[in-house]
Amino acid sequence: MISQSSNSENASSSLSTHRSVMFDGTDVLRISELAIRVHVHHSPKVKPAYSSSCDGDLGLGWEGQRCHGCFLSELFEHVQNTGLPHSLDARTRKFSIVTNNTAALLYIGGYDHGRVKGEMVMVPMSSYGYSVKVDGVRVGDDRRSLELFEFVDPSKRDFVSGDVDFSQPCLCFPNHDVNGTLRESPYERFSRFKLESGQKSISLSLKDAAGQTRLLRIPGDVCVQPCSGSLVLGDPFYRNFVVLYDLSDGLQPRFGFGKMKGADGSETSFKPQSPDFFPHLASTHDPIAVPVEKKLVRVPSEAGQSSAFRYLYLIHASLGTPAKVDDYSYCLVTEK
Length: 336
What we know:
Elements: E1 12-17, E2 25-31, E3 34-42, E4 56-60, H1 71-79, E5 94-99, E6 103-108, E7 116-124, E8 131-140, E9 145-147, E10 160-164, E11 171-174, H2 186-196, E12 201-207, E13 213-219, E14 224-227, E15 231-233, H3 235-238, E16 241-246, E17 254-260, E18 288-299, E19 308-319, E20 326-334
Parallel strand pairs: 1-3, 4-20, 10-15, 11-14
Antiparallel strand pairs: 1-4, 2-3, 2-19, 5-6, 5-16, 6-18, 7-17, 8-9, 8-10, 8-12, 12-13, 16-17, 18-19, 19-20
């Protein structure tokens, strides 16, 4: 693991902050057991809608992407070229997220195998960002079910892009035909079926890294909303699956989806307050566990529409040298 030694403070990243007291320069950002030298810049004219809830952004961006606060890619790039003992080399350029309704954990360097029931299903990421190709969405039970994706011409296109986004409180089904790809809006089909019979489960059909079709099931009583954009796998998906972001192969990044223990009621769900929720990781090959605060906030929507709710994932960190350290809260954001 990376210790808070002077050698580990050579990593350089760019951190955007919203506090008016901040200034341009470099300083040391400490998160859990990580110490990263960052460039701090204040941008008062460009404040995101949630800026009142956090002091800056930490971006979970693509490997090599130069975006504000993308500290993970910068960190991986740095430690790979040092002689320090660590687990964050090219083979473990990964991070994962587990969550419940009040808190979350960010694992840097992999995922906690003890929280996954069964196998981790590896699925290719789409080329443009943190999304996957979804072949189908079926609602219902063994007696009666309905496929929401009815493709106009499966020979030309047989999938719908789905954003994997922890900030969205619900699953979002398109309320349109996805640029003529589908015969009907998935949300309209979902709404009719729900009113007629009530669904028992929602099954997502995806192809894994080997090209085999895999089904990922979540309970049917989760929050579902219409969306004008793409399909979104939001908070209900994260509450049922450990989500692994595998960037170890820059040309073929992948997601890993592992059924979370306790998500189906068969085992005890994890509790953020329990001692083992933030385990002591002694091995240099263990991922680094970072506690994350989870907060539901109202943010203005675009184009003058009504406000919407989003989940903020807040990491509490300190900024500064040991002689002068200030505590801050940073919002995790996904960059595309």
